[in-house]
Amino acid sequence: MKREYRIALLTGDGVGPVLAQEAAAILTSLSVRYGFGCTIDQLPFGRAAFEQVGTALPEETEAGIRAADATLATAVDANGVVGPTPVGLLRKRLELFADVRLIRARPGRWALRDDLDMVVVREITQGFLSDRNLHTGNGEWMSDADTAFSLRLITYEASRRIADYAFDYAKKNGRKKVTALHKSSIFKLTCGTFLRACRDVAAAYPDIAYEEEVVDNAANGLIAHPEQYDVLLTTNLFGDILSDEAAALVSSLAPSVNQGPQARVYLPVSHSPAYAALKSDAYDPVPALLCLHMLLQDLGEQAAADALDRAISATLGQSWPNATALFAALYGALKDGGGCVE
User: Fold this and answer.
1) What's the pTM value of the predicted model, to 2 decimals?
2) Residue 293: which residues within 8 A CB-CB, separation 6 or more?
């Protein structure tokens, strides 16, 4: 029986619709060559959607993501969006709880070390992210005009869920060690609760080494000796910062997926260039392409993923004046390497 998938592409902002169009073309051609069916829905999301209908996540887009086997977000601009950020809204509405970011050095782009290969697993429903910490309202408030408070929420249940996910991921992907990052000397109750859950899960995985490290030390260690890390497991804000630091070690070529019980959304890491470049042909499409590669792997379409990976690798070692030229080179590499993109 032919394998059939429904893929949602979030068109996003700036160059986003172009990236979505190119991703659709790549998926369609790979599906023909490698024998799987691919129904593709292009859906509005982000600032453009907010300006058109008053929400960054329209109902039709949410329904399309829920109906899809996987979703790829392209380029998203949060500037000018009132209320939660588009990605924050996406995570909350779809109950996405795990942000998984792959950090791997790739020939042709700068990396701190050629052997970098680690994964950051971050809990994304709690922590200091104030837009999702209370039943109503948010987790920040002011007692007077000059005094502000922010609430950090950590529960054993959410910590256990992300720890289960990280250790299961490590086992399925041949990873050898999980390091839980914390600051329990200061946040005795919240980090203490997180670590208790991590230790409980670690006990069920005796074949995977388990370590704990203070987040300050890990921030230093990612630069000083990144080869010592395998799977990094941490809470929301710590992971938000450290995953971006880790991505910078491989020129931001760090695909990520936000995983929930009923949805998977793949998001490129694009801190450079800045949002102003979203409307420019100079925008680097490679992080989005790596997310597409990750998506194909997770669907089990390894042959198609390998073809795309070879094509991406062929383009990374060369210099391209703009995204249009890079896509042209990618299509040629896919055709030569078995991807058959015409």
Assistant:
1) 0.92
2) 255, 305, 308, 309, 312
